[in-house]
Design brief:
This protein is mainly alpha-helical. Helix content is 62%, strand content 0%. It has helices at 4-18, 30-39, 45-58, 62-67, 70-77, 83-101, 109-112, 120-130, 140-149, 157-167, 173-186, 205-218. It is elongated.
């Protein structure tokens, strides 16, 4: 298994290029970030931001969202896709926040994952970006990169999260996830990774395996 020193080397090289990242989803409150995170499933961040501008104009907080008919929510968020499910989750989560948490988004993971539409990945996004509490969200980019590099061998987000949390200092978790996501979007693409442009190529099992295969073919 990769050592903490090796994990830190991955982080530090990414940090040298991308630095301190910020959440690309526009929000002014933890509740608004929760709503944006829900809408971001299978939807680009720029589209989410365009939709939430309209959504938060009429429902800026949990009480206002809970008071909207689900049909109204669905109409507003339709451009984000999966609007029927997302609208139901938004309204149900808002109602639960009003009913059980005095209208304020809870700041503990065990309470966040109780909210409709919020899984562990989304809860970790909220911990790190809304409450400045260490959290390591594992999305498809994070999973792909860490498996390609070879520091994990699992498709289970919780297994990957636990391994990161064992090897990386908590104060780096949130930004490390952002760094991996950005690198996955810009360089280490799912279908055609740009290995020649990657600052991690010498550390990456995927790259070194394919480089060896190419050398054998050309020999």
């Amino acid at each position: 298994m990769a050592t903490p020193k090796f994990w830190r080397k991955i982080h530090d090289r990414l940090y040298t290029v991308y630095g301190d990242c910020v959440c690309p989803l526009k929000h002014e409150t933890p509740f608004q970030l929760m709503a944006a995170v829900m809408l971001s499933a299978q939807c680009r961040d720029d589209r989410v931001n365009a939709v939430t501008e309209n959504l938060f104009a009429v429902a800026p907080d949990a009480a206002a969202m809970a008071g909207l008919p689900v049909e109204k929510i669905e109409m507003i968020i339709h451009p984000c896709g999966l609007s029927q499910n997302k609208s139901r989750h938004l309204k149900a989560a808002a109602e639960m926040i009003v009913r059980e948490f005095n209208g304020q988004l809870p700041s503990a993971l065990d309470k966040l994952v109780r909210l409709p539409g919020i899984g562990r990945k989304s809860a970790n996004v909220l911990l790190g970006n809304a409450f400045s509490t260490p959290g390591f969200p594992v999305d498809t980019h994070v999973k792909r990169l860490l498996n390609r590099i070879g520091v994990v061998e699992s498709d289970d987000p919780e297994v990957i999260e636990r391994e990161n949390n064992r090897k990386v200092p908590p104060e780096l978790w949130t930004n490390f996830s952002h760094l991996l996501i950005r690198h996955g979007r810009e360089v280490c693409h799912a279908r055609k990774p740009e290995c020649d442009e990657c600052m991690l190529s010498d550390l990456c099992k995927f790259h070194n395996r394919h480089k060896s295969s190419s050398s054998l073919k050309n020999s």
